[in-house]
Amino acid sequence: MELTERLERAEGEMIWALTQSPPAVREALGISGQRIGKGIVVVMSNDSIDYWSRASGFGFDGPIDGALVGEILDAARAADARALNFHLAPEVLPANWAEICAEHGIVAGGTWVKAVREAGPVDPVPTDLRIGVIEPDEAATWSALQIEVFGIPKDQTDLLTAFASAPNVTAYGAWDGDTLVATGGLVITGEVGECVSGTTLPPYRGRGAQSAILARRAEDAFAAGCRWVASETGKPGPGEHNSSLANMERVGFKVAYDRQIYRWKA
Question: CB 240: neighbour CB atoms within 10 A?
Fold first, then answer.
């Protein structure tokens, strides 16, 4: 339970960092946040893909019940949330979670895999691409590549650009000559390094970019004093292959648990 809490809080603080975006970005996207106990509620009211608004980190400093969920949703409504995604570790869900969901109009969504790697020697991953840290004048290119590959709305470009230089965040890339072809990010919270923003342009896949960026992030996180690095990806179905999960396992990550996402819509 202690490790799970550390991992969930680190991921939550990564999302909370959005509330520290430049004022113009927060205003344009309707970003706000509220802490309830040790959990966080972050709302992006102008997010057309309903991805960023999130409640996480709950269930560790007190049980999850209908009253707490009501308080969380009141905070979301007050912030004009279009939707709210509940990211809750499976071990904190109460026995009557299905009843709480029915009461508040919350429905089950997809399942994510939480993967973690303990500190230790990191073997370099061979690649013919150059791996390095994104410089401030490259942040816009870093964000634009993610916008293109993930299909993120272009009005979120400034959000990702600002995130690249946020406190405790390091942005990484892979280059083919002078061309940025892959991205990654590392957010350090206490003893956990959260690996995010992993993308590769389709023509450059299969050349080791993501595995190499993961290895570099793990190495840098452990050098900075982290005891673990963690990341998330969608859970593959039976017989399916998830290249992101395969890259993590190649660098020594192991699946810690599956976490189903639950969504409320206004």
Answer: 8
Q: Do 147 and 155 touch, CB atoms closer than 8 A?
A: no
Query: N- to C-terminal Cα distance for the chain?
Result: 32
Q: Are 224 and 193 in contact (CB under 8 A)?
A: yes
**237: nearest Cα among 114, 113, 150:** 113
Angle at 173 between CA 171 and CA 174, to 5 degrees: 165
Segment 204-229, tens digit of pLDDT: 999 999 999 999 999 999 999 999 99
Q: By the 8 A CB rule, do 142 and 165 touch?
A: no
Report the C-alpha gap between 149 and 135 in whole angstroms: 21
> From CA 98, how far away is CA 93, in angstroms rounded?
9
pLDDT one-digit tens code per residue, 32-89 = 999 999 999 999 999 999 999 999 999 999 999 999 999 999 999 999 999 999 999 9
Whole-angstrom distance, CA of residue 181 vs CA of residue 40: 34
> Does an H or E element contain 160, and which?
helix 157-163
